[in-house]
Amino acid sequence: MSTPTIEELEGRLNAYRELMIELLAAMIGGEVTITGFVQKLRDDATFKDGEEDPGADPEPAFAIENEMAREMRTILEAARARSGRS
Fold it and tell me: In which region does residue 10 sit, left (phi positive, over 0), alpha (psi from -120 to 50) or beta (all else)?
């Protein structure tokens, strides 16, 4: 396992921070906001940077956003697996 870059760590940290804020806001808001939370989580997990060449090195800001989206996808997949839903 290689050492993560600063961009990877920042993206993962941002994902957890955003997830905690959204989760708490959804819990406070009730059932309607929980539905919105799940949709936002799905949307965040599909961040697209518009890069035409998938092999190109992304700018640091996009690398952070991509890592955040990757971490959100990982969290969402684990939550789906644990809930028994796909």
Answer: alpha
70 neighbors 4 (Cβ within 8 angstroms)? no
3-state SS track over 2-68: CCCCHHHHHHHHHHHHHHHHHHHHHHHHCHHHHHHHHHHHHHHCCCCCCCCCCCCCCCHHHHHHHHH
Residue corresponding to tokens 């690398």: 63
- Does the reported pTM lie above 0.85? no
pLDDT, one tens digit per residue, over 61-76 is 788 988 988 888 888 8
Q: Could you give the CA distance from residue 64 to residue 8 in angstroms, rounded to a whole number?
A: 6
Note whether 68 and 59 are within 8 A (CB).
no
What's the first-to-final CA gap in the chain, in angstroms?
A: 29
25: its two tokens: 């806001």
